[in-house]
Design brief:
The complex is a heterodimer of chains A (165) and B (116). Chain A has 165 residues and is α+β, with helices and mostly antiparallel strands. Chain A has helices at 22-30, 32-35, 148-164, and strands at 11-18, 45-51, 58-64, 71-82, 86-94, 116-124, 129-137. Chain A has one domain: Alpha-D-Glucose-1,6-Bisphosphate, Chain A, domain 4 (2-Layer Sandwich), CATH 3.30.530.20. Chain B has two domains: 2-77, Winged helix-like DNA-binding domain superfamily/Winged helix DNA-binding domain (Arc Repressor Mutant, subunit A), CATH 1.10.10.10; 85-116, no CATH class. In chain B, a hairpin with an 8-residue loop joins β1 and β2 (73-75). The model of chain B is unreliable at 112-116 (pLDDT under 50). Classes of the chains: A alpha+beta (165), B mainly alpha (116).
């Protein structure tokens, strides 16, 4: 169980079908104006959604609590962009300049990987769109995790201890 | 598979949404106990305690032994580990986000947005 926190198999898969065309759903993810209208917890705002929409381009998002007192930044990179079909980007907790910070320092759930990958697959159902989201942890050994691997191994060990008590 | 996982999670959350049941789990975290022992600290009838135990058992949070009279209960932490993983917490976060996307899409006039 503890190893799963940094495993590629450790992923959330959510499927939804929307009563909207595939081009609009694509814009929901890639057009900051649309993106800001649905992303984030209820009541939160998205003051920043910088999307350099090209492979290797940077994606910097800021979510702000309703009273603006708490800001959460995430940074990532676009990996795959196939308009109206497939979008892949990485995501990590960061500061406002896009420098990665530790997930636990940002109040992420225990065991949250330093780098996660979000995969959005759209299927055109003729006026309706099936969307499959996969949010997966990226193994720290891939290099993207940097110095966090050790910290996460420690955390995984700790969680195992807690689970056994 | 996703659907049955969701049902199980619902059961876990529902089972945990009760002070008495959380107290029973806290007691079992120290070691196995019989229904009588579990009922002791509570001002509650045995049938009432048994009802709580059934809810916890259905959610997979406790396992009741088959030894005829005593049937000691033990805690099963697997469902607790499931709801503590980041993926399960994020499933709820994404579901909520997509509810909001759906609401937003319904507010939009698709014909006006296609000119962006």
């Amino acid at each position: 169980m503890s190893n799963a926190t940094i495993s590629k198999e450790d992923a959330v898969v959510v499927e939804r079908t929307f009563e909207a065309g595939v081009d609009l759903i694509w814009q929901m993810w890639t057009d900051p104006t649309h993106f800001k209208n649905w992303y984030g917890p209820k009541g939160f705002t998205i003051p920043v959604a910088d999307m350099d929409l090209r492979v290797g381009g940077r994606r910097l998002i800021c979510m702000a609590s309703p009273d603006g007192s708490m800001k959460m930044w995430t940074v990532g990179e676009y990996k795959e962009i196939i308009p109206n079909e497939r979008l892949v980007y990485t995501e990590s907790p960061s500061d406002e300049n896009g420098n990665m910070v530790s997930p636990s320092a940002m109040g992420m759930p225990e065991g949250y990987p330093a780098v996660t990958e979000v995969i959005v697959v759209l299927e055109d159902l003729g006026g309706r769109t099936k969307m499959t989201l996969t949010h997966a942890g990226v193994p720290a050994s891939s290099g993207a995790g940097g110095g966090w691997e050790q910290a996460f191994n420690k955390l995984a060990d700790y969680m195992e201890t807690v689970g056994k008590s | 598979m996703v659907r049955s996982d969701d049902n199980r999670l619902d059961q876990t959350f529902a089972a945990l949404a009760n002070t008495t049941r959380r107290a029973i789990l806290a007691r079992l975290a120290e070691g196995e106990a019989t229904v009588n022992e579990l009922a002791e600290p509570f001002n509650m009838s045995l049938p009432a305690i048994s009802k709580h135990i059934k809810v916890l058992e259905r959610a997979g949070l406790i396992i009741q032994g088959q030894k005829a009279q005593y049937r000691p209960c033990t805690i099963n932490t697997t469902p607790l580990q499931e709801i503590s993983s980041w993926t399960e917490q994020y499933r709820h976060i994404w579901e909520e986000r997509f509810d909001q996307m759906d609401d937003y899409i319904n507010q939009l006039n698709p014909k006006e947005t296609s000119n962006e």
